[in-house]
Structure formats: C-alpha cells, structure tokens
Amino acid sequence: MLAHPRSLALLLSAGVLTGCAVGPDYKAPEIALSPTFLGQQGIDRRPVQHQADLTIWWAAFNDPLLTRFVALALEQNLDIAQTAARVAQSRAALRYADAALLPAANASISAARAYQSVETPLGQVLNATPGFDRYGSSYEANLGASWEIDVFGGLRRGQEAARAAYEASEAGAVATRLAVAAQTADVYVMIRGLQARIAIARQQVETRRRLLAMVRLQYEKGIAAELQMNQAEGSLTQAEAQIPVLETGLDSAMNALDVLLGVQPGSYRTELALLAPVPTAPALAGTGTPAETIRRRPDLIAAERRLAAANARIGVALAEYYPKFSLAALLGSATAIASGNLFTGAASQAQGVLGLRWRLFDFGRVDAQIDAARGQEAEALAAYRLAVLRAAEDVENAFSALVKREAQLAILTRGEASLTRARENSFAAYQGGVVSLIEVLDADGNLLQVRDAKAQAQTEAARSAIASFRALGGGWDADSNHRYSHLSTTQQRSAK
C-alpha cells in the first residue's frame, strides 16, 4: 500500500527538480535592420560646435532655464507619477506570482460557547444521556500549511509573465520620463520661438508706425497723396494684426509648459517673460546604429517585454490541461472539556493531505483560453515589429528635418542680410523722391517675412534636434542596464 504514495512522491519531486514548464520558451524575435540610418551622413556633416551627451542631451543646448525646467518636469510631472504608480502595481503582482510558488502557512485559534437545542435529533439523543448539560464549550488551536506543487510549470509561467510585465512597466516608466523631458524642451523652444517672432512683429509695427507718421506729415504739407497715407495705414494694421495671433500661441505654450511641470497655468509665466534667444541645436554625438537604438529606446524595450509576457501566458493557459497537485498539513490541539486541557496529549491532532485537481471536461474552456493567449502573443509580436519600424521612421524623419531646417536657416540668414540692405536703400531712395512708398512697403514686408521665417527655422531646427534625441532613446544610460541585452537583430545587407 505504500508503493503508490512513494511513487507519486517521486513523480512530484522529479517534476519540481527538472523545472520543466509547459508552453513555448521565449525567444526574442529577430528584426532585420539596415546597418546605418539613411540620414546619418547629413547629421555627421552638420557644422556645430557643441557635442551632446545622449544621456543628458538637454544640457547641450546651453540654456540654464531649459535645463532647470527639464529637471523640474522630471521631478513634478504627473504623467511620471502615474507611471511610477503602475510600476508599483506591477511589482506587487510580481511578488504575488513569486509567492504562489512557495508554501503558505496559517494559524487559527478559536473558542466557542454553545447552548444545545433538545428539539433537534442530536439534542434529543444527547438529552437522553444522564447528566447532559445543554451548555457546551470547545477550544481549538491549529497550525496549517499548504503547497501547490508546480509539476507542469503553470505557476512558473505565470511568474515569467509577471516578471516580464513588471520589466515592461519599468521600461514604460523610463519612456514616459524621456517623453516628458522631450516635451518640456520642445514647448520651451516653441515659447522662445514665438517670443522672437512677436519681437520681430513689434519691431515691424514700430517701423511702420514711424513711416505712417512721416507720410501723414508729408500729406499735411501737400507733398504726399492721400493714397500713400492710406497704404501706410493699411500696412500698419496688417502688421499689428499678426501680434494677437502670435500672443495666443505663446499663452497656450506657456500654459502647456506649466502643466508639464505639474503646476497651475501661469506659475512660471513671469520667469518666462524674460526674453532669451532660441537655443541652438547641438551635435548628435554617438547616435549609434538602428540595432543599438532598439536596445536603447525604452518604449521598444517595453514592447518586447510585453511580448515576452504574452508568450509566458500561453504556458499558463496550457497548464490547465494537466492535473494540479497540492500538499496540506495540519498540526494542532482541540478539546471540548476545558481550556486547560488544550495542548495536552489527548487533545493533540494532526492531518496530512495530498490533493489532486484535474479539469477533465469543460466544454472547450481551456482551448478557448489557449487560443486567446496565442492571439495575444501574435498581437504583441506585431505591435513590437511595428514599434521598431515606427522608431526607425522617427529617427529618419527627425534627422531629415534637422538637416533641412538648418539648411533653410542658412539660406534665410543670407536673405535677411540682402533684404536689410535692400530696405535701407529703398527707404533712402523714397526720401530722395526716387521711388514710391509702395516700393518701401514691399521691401519692408519682404524683410518682415524673411525675419519671421528665420525665427521659425531656428525654432524648428531646435525642435528637430529634440525629436532626434527622443527618437534615439536619449535621456537615460541604457548601457548600464544589461537586463535587455538579449534583444536580437539582424542587419539587412545594403543593396549594391
């Protein structure tokens, strides 16, 4: 009779020691990537002076206020606070999954006092006993333990899924921090760009106001025609009308920055009111290859970890096909005589239980769970592959925008110098009576447009640099974290 329990015990021990688990073992997918980015050569040829450290790229803009705001955002932003809370939840779920593999123990103590009815069958039997007392007491103290033996690895697969989900939440938290840092820098640059455009517009308004005063004086003396005065007034109102639109955008950008910093809109408006130039984009040092970008970008790491979690959940679903074994034990003392008899030899009790639970017939519920798990794994794989492609797209777009915007800025700088001289010559000729007011206004308008376009180009170039740093996964020291070094890629051979 002992042969069967011993054989079963050996079977359970072998299953635990071998560590076998049902379901597919996870293998990171291989992603085919090009050896270099298409826009890498253009980035390498940029004529810049400052080199950026990818881990703290915002400091390379040499703007103390920008650096301060990014630090405040990383400390105070509420999106970051939410992701930190989600990481805490995932950590708790991982601890729960770890604990499921270990035995559980409990202690119980009870004392009861009862008054027995004599109208029930039991009460009638007891009432016929000589000296029966309808009052009765019972005392019990037990120490119990239980353990589900993970023979087929369902619990271990659940642990793998929980660990991967926790790592995904950690990577997601890092991704949120990087996104907040980039958004803060981007909004700050937009603010400086709008302030520059507003300053240009106000300068133009003041210039056209002086021109209108001059034309009005000439008109009063009969030198200038009424048409010329009307043209000057119209040109002034046109320049003035641009300012409210720009100020509206500036207010919105300042409010957005305050929200990123986790404060009420308007909190930092006074500090931002002090004018400063648009930050100059630094060099993108150490951009690396597309394969290195996959290992650096936390959003891709999070997507890969979600894929690993989905793969492990297939094993959790498959484990429902197999029986589940459990061990339970109880050691305690119980008495109905008096509390003083508790923990005596006569009151001691013990129990050992070997449990088996096996789903034999469930109308396809397990099959449905397995199909759902496989579908989730396929969805996560597609999402990961798409995320890699989107990441490559982000890098290429940011590189292209940065190079093209800086080229536009160089052209506009030359154009501004030429149009400034043309406007001065035109105004001097107008004062000498050589050209009409229309030519002066045209030269003035052209200069306004090129200055405004130059301010926009400066802004967009800095924003493109920020987008490049974000697309490359800059903002954290990915090399110091070897947890995700297993991510696999294959390089596409360049076409010859």
Descriptors:
2 domains; Outer membrane efflux proteins (OEP); disordered N terminus; 6 strands; 11% strand; 496 residues; single chain; two-stranded parallel ribbon
Please characterize this protein's 3D structure.
By secondary structure, the chain is of the alpha+beta class. The protein folds into two domains: 7-101 and 151-322 and 368-491, Outer membrane efflux proteins (OEP), CATH 1.20.1600.10; 110-149 and 324-357, Single Sheet (Outer membrane efflux proteins (OEP)), CATH 2.20.200. The protein has twelve helices and six strands. Strands 2-3-4-5 form a four-stranded antiparallel β-sheet, with no helix packed on it.
The Rg value, from CA coordinates, equals: 38 Å
CATH class of the largest domain: Mainly Alpha
Proportion of helical residues: 55-70%
- What is the average per-residue confidence, as pLDDT, rounded to a whole number? 86
Strand and helix order: HEHHHEHEHHHHHEEHHE
Briefly, what is this?
The protein has helices spanning 3-18, 40-44, 64-76, 78-100, 121-127, 154-220, 226-260, 269-272, 290-296, 298-318, 365-431, 437-471, and strands at residues 31-33, 104-115, 135-149, 324-335, 348-357, 489-491. It has 496 residues and is α+β, with helices and mostly antiparallel strands. The strands form two sheets. Strands 2-3-4-5 form a four-stranded antiparallel beta sheet, with no helix packed on it.
